[in-house]
Amino acid sequence: MQIKEIPAAPEFDMFFYCEVAGENRIDRDLLEEIEERWERWAGLLKAHLLTNPEGGAQYVFLFMDKAVEDEIEGIWQDSPTHGLALHNLAIAMVMSAAHGLIPELQEGRCAPLPKPGKAMLDAFDKLGLTWNKEGTVNRQYAVLTPYPYSDGCDICYLQPTCPKAALER
Questions:
Q1: Count of domains in the chain?
Q2: Model's pTM, two decimal places?
Q3: Mean pLDDT across the stretch 77-90?
């Protein structure tokens, strides 16, 4: 798998953040903190295009640096409410970057998670990451999905456990 770092430009959208957070408003102090963290964390968002040279398949892989996870965990210990707000911010940031790269995701479509083969597992290893059999990497805030968009339930690794798929049955 070839790995190419690509630019990711997440755009803060207060309505999207509120949707992710399950909130209908944000107080001024939290909004100021969110703005400061968004600007700082944007530099800790990693974006890669993974390309299988044999089959030509491509995937977008976005993830937040471990420093963001550690920062949120530290805040969570002091204030679960505040930690949850920043947890939701990290999710919104990764998804906003995914939306920018794959516009179909803005329409509410899922980002199907492909089942990684050996080449993809080797790519994770080169990036210093580990794939877990549950369908995650060892980064809490991450998205891996085919690029360009590939309509997805039938190719998604999480299909048997997807709550959205269960609702649609």
A1: 1
A2: 0.88
A3: 95
